[in-house]
Amino acid sequence: MLKIGLTGGMGSGKTVVAQIFKNIGVPVFCADIEAKKTYSDSEVRRQIINIFGKQIYINDTDIDRQALAAKIFNSKELLKQVNNIIHPAVCKHFEKWLAAQKSAYIIHEAAIMIESGFDRLMDKIIVVNAPYDLRIMRAMLRDKQSYQQITERMANQMSDEERNARADFLINNYMNIPLLPQILEIHEKIIALT
Prior knowledge:
Elements: E1 2-8, H1 14-23, E2 28-30, H2 31-38, H3 42-52, H4 65-72, H5 76-99, E3 105-109, E4 124-129, H6 132-143, H7 147-155, H8 160-165, E5 169-172, H9 179-193
Parallel strand pairs: 1-3, 1-4, 2-3, 4-5
Helix pairs in contact: 2-5, 3-5
């Protein structure tokens, strides 16, 4: 079974692309959703509290996402510490999920696939592209955050040029370019590799 990484900058539309892959029958693991779940794991919770204190959690299982984001997106060191806690936990979830799959290939969607080094565990990488200004607009609408908040978060991500250089396949998610034909073409190429 091939492991295909799917990534792209904030607001690029990788979640939409992942959903289309899911709709054509490809199993999709969404690392960002799984990462949110790990905050309720007892060991992750203990480590996060060691860094930020108990007040970072709303209750025993729910973290205050806005408070956490405000802290980590303004400090590369805190962001690195949190990633060093969350990424191994997500990796465990992925390995368990992967063992249950029975298809020619799977998609592993992650915002920071390459930055986290997880791309080295994938057989191929798909990168979703969109113009910077469009990405900002999408992220502002989706996350209900200001231009400044979004651009600060984007500054912590790899540049499009760096990400594209690591891609085996590129998907252009611009307003006037249909996604489905691009995805079906990549799907056929991946199936041919299995």
